[in-house]
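Quick one - inputs below.
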Amino acid sequence: MKLAIAGGTGLTGAHLTARAAARGHDVVVLSRSTGVELLSGAGLAGRLDGVDAVIDATNVTTSKPDVSVSFFAGVTKSLLTAERLAKVPHHLALTIVGADAAPDGYYAGKLVQERLIANGPTPWTLLRTTQFHEFAAMLFHRGRAGMHVAPHGRVQPIAVAEVAEHLLDLSEGEPAGRTPDLAGPREEDLLAMVRAYAHAIGSRGLVAAMDPRGAYGHALRSGALLPGREALLGRQTFAQWLDALPDA
Ligand SMILES: NC(=O)c1ccc[n+]([C@@H]2O[C@H](COP(=O)([O-])OP(=O)(O)OC[C@H]3O[C@@H](n4cnc5c(N)ncnc54)[C@H](OP(=O)(O)O)[C@@H]3O)[C@@H](O)[C@H]2O)c1
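Output:
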């Protein structure tokens, strides 16, 4: 198969790219560092010729709803337009379990992305997953000058490697619409995860609790970001992920 991986240089995208190549697929990476600006569509012409499926793993780091909406809407529209012209038969994207519970920040863009895909011209598959184990590392490294903060929150984190394998399985099948959610094997407290990560990498600084207000804070505390009973569960626990860190 020929797969195009949008955001193929990012955290999820790099796993997708390496694992797709290991499965014997022909891979085209679409990102600014490979000459494709997906907000404007510049550099996209011709890149989707002969592609069997596009997997969108692009991302923007923001908590502002307008920034998130303009990013995910812009990228999705560019991809869907190029897919229509190149007659690509399958568009896949990755979104987040419980996104509807906190539509006032980053998740606003994920919901717009889902809507555009569901109403778009390309047959599609959407996978919602929970937070990745790496989310703890991302929150920790946002801290500056030894000041680290993280919220308490009910999450069920998943290994990004398992997310990538599952997305590739889906890309090898027929477009399936909204597929069962994918989550990690057990519930964790987000603040405890960030503190365990800090300990694992030898940081002696304090990670203070700072709970976000608004719908996102409520969603984290209430369990709205946890998977339902019908979700598929991955295998690697957060503790196993920590043990496997190269700097642990
Ligand atoms: N992190 C989590 O816990 C989590 C959980 C569930 C779902 N997700 C979803 O997983 C997806 C991937 O997230 P991630 O954390 O793996 O992403 P990431 O590491 O932040 O990577 C983002 C990718 O997007 C590319 N990109 C950004 N702006 C671009 C632009 N204007 N044009 C072209 N490429 C652009 C980047 O490459 P260049 O910089 O080279 O352009 C990079 O390859 C997101 O949709 C996210 O919502 C994440």
